[in-house]
Amino acid sequence: MICMNGVRCLRCDSITEPRLCTQLETCHKGEVCGVEQKRSDNGDISYWTGCISPTSCISEDSNTIVPAKRTGYYDNEVICRHCCSSDLCNSKGCGAIGYPADRGPLCYECKNLADPSTCHTIAFCNHNEKCFVGSEAHFGQLYYTTRCEPLHACTALDVSSPLGKRALPCRHCCTGDLCNSSCKV
Description:
By secondary structure, the protein is mainly beta. It has one helix spanning 151-160, and strands at 8-10, 12-15, 24-26, 32-39, 45-52, 62-64, 77-84, 106-108, 110-113, 122-124, 129-138, 141-150, 171-174.
């Protein structure tokens, strides 16, 4: 199984659908994204998402049906495991559907970070929003905020930015999933 170094995966436990996870992790070299479908002792189904060793998977981009234990008690029994190797690919798998094709961008959403690339939380933006990253000075140091921003506010930022000059603090919008991890335009 071949995988990319630093693939970004959703990271949650006991969620109702993988695509509802809003936490991210960057996998270590050699890891892939995984989804596990679990059944509790009362029959409820939940999902785990995160980075996983490829040795836990039969093959890349496939479902592994994990045999049921026959003990009579199976709290959090793994009944399916899905592995994949691209950013956010574990938003689906094991019968769960992923993100809809017609949606707004997925953006980082954090406040007051020393480095915007250390944000590990995402937000599901609306169609009329873009991803935003901006900085503000507090106590003599720059802190960054990432979030969804309405299109009209982004248009105002584009108009107010002087052409050819880098204004500090940084404030800009971008289009595309997870594009707001840096203040570099």
